[in-house]
Write a structure and sequence with these properties.
about 25% strand, elongated, about 350 residues, 4-stranded antiparallel beta sheet, single chain, alpha+beta, 3 domains, 5-stranded antiparallel beta sheet
């Protein structure tokens, strides 16, 4: 009888076979890569190439059952070159379908390392705006090239998207995505927008998918930029009116007050009330009798009638005839006890003054 040998190969524990279904196939690697972006970088003297490949989808190839599959990809290739001490960029965007067999050696890592989707979106957004003007902002690979200074901007300004910034790129008030707000800068922005629209008009016959996408994005940017400029103009006008009121108030403090307190109505207080701002003057609609009603103001316990002067807008712009037809004085006195409710939703309000009689 032979002795038992625990070190005999027959007596050693054998590794369990790996089930075939646990092996990860190339097709499974591609399925898991759908939606991801891969980045491949190559450098040469004076040239830097960056290729982004986004996996859009994976599907079975025809004929069914062949084991082959198709990979739908979106590729963006960017070349940055330095010519005559100036950096220039060129780019190629293309979509395509790769047909692969089940035993292919092509895997997602063949297109480089995985990169964040946000980086890929910044690149494509810059290309949609204007490549040579804006791509350099998002293609800074080295820390010493990061020139942004993290300081709060203490001037009135707007933060624009890349597409909005491209519309005012000819304005001297633009700094990257920051647009400084002054009276002249709003005028310059409108002029620059018109220049861009005239330039784009020359290419209106281009109808391929990329240009259609660009036109849609640009139209959205024009609408949003115009809204931002309009709000900025209204805010500037309101600030100008308030500054004028404060100046008048300081001047009124220097005037000798010999008249009764009620007679020396402070027009700055009435102006604030008509603009819907906090004020010591209150304005309301009064009904003396069925045949006599009108607007009165109250100041320091005294009340007196007001005369209508004209209609105005908080932006200071002139009113059209169509706008004047729709305005009714009594519609502005819908508050408690027929109190004045301030400018309407469109920014219109009545200009009033103390009655002369």
């Amino acid at each position: 009888m032979s002795k038992f040998n625990p070190m005999s190969p027959a007596n050693l524990p054998q590794p369990e076979p790996v089930p075939e279904e646990m092996e990860i196939s190339v097709r499974q690697l591609w399925d898991a890569a759908v939606g991801k972006v891969f980045k491949l970088v190559s450098k040469d003297y004076g040239t830097r190439n960056v290729t982004y490949t986004q996996v859009k989808g994976v599907r079975d190839a025809k004929p069914a059952g062949s084991g082959a599959f198709e990979i739908e990809v979106l590729c963006v290739e960017v070349m940055a070159r330095t010519l005559s001490s100036k950096r220039t960029q060129s780019n190629i965007c293309k979509e395509g379908v790769l047909r692969e067999e089940a035993n292919t050696d092509l895997i997602p890592e063949s297109f480089g390392v995985e990169c964040p989707l946000a980086e890929f979106e910044r690149i494509t957004n810059a290309i949609l705006a204007y490549t040579n003007s804006y791509l350099d902002w998002v293609m800074q690979p080295d820390p010493e090239q990061q020139t942004d200074i993290p300081a709060a901007i203490d001037f009135p300004h707007l933060m624009l998207t890349d597409m909005e910034a491209s519309l005012v790129r000819n304005s001297p008030f633009l700094s990257k995505n920051t647009y400084f707000i002054t009276g002249n800068s709003i005028v310059a922005a409108q002029v620059s927008i018109q220049q861009e629209l005239q330039r784009a008009q020359r290419g209106i016959l281009l109808t391929d998918a990329v240009d259609a996408n660009y036109v849609a994005r640009k139209n959205e940017a024009i609408a949003s930029l115009q809204a931002k400029l309009k709000d900025a103009a209204q805010e500037m006008e309101t600030g100008r009116i308030l500054a004028s009121v404060e100046k008048q108030q300081r001047e009124n403090e220097l005037v000798e007050r010999r008249r009764p307190g009620f007679a020396s109505l402070q027009l700055d207080s009435l102006t604030l009330a008509l603009l819907g701002k906090p004020s010591t003057t209150t304005v309301r609609w009064a009904n003396a009798n069925p045949s006599e009603d009108g607007v009165v103001f109250c100041l320091g316990g005294h009340c007196a009638p007001l005369d209508f002067v004209r209609w105005a807008h908080i932006s200071g712009r002139a009113l059209t005839e169509d706008a004047l037809v729709k305005l009714k004085l009594q519609d502005f006195f819908k508050g408690w006890k027929q109190a004045y409710t301030g400018p309407n939703a469109e920014g219109y309000y009545p200009m009033l003054k103390p009655a002369t009689n």
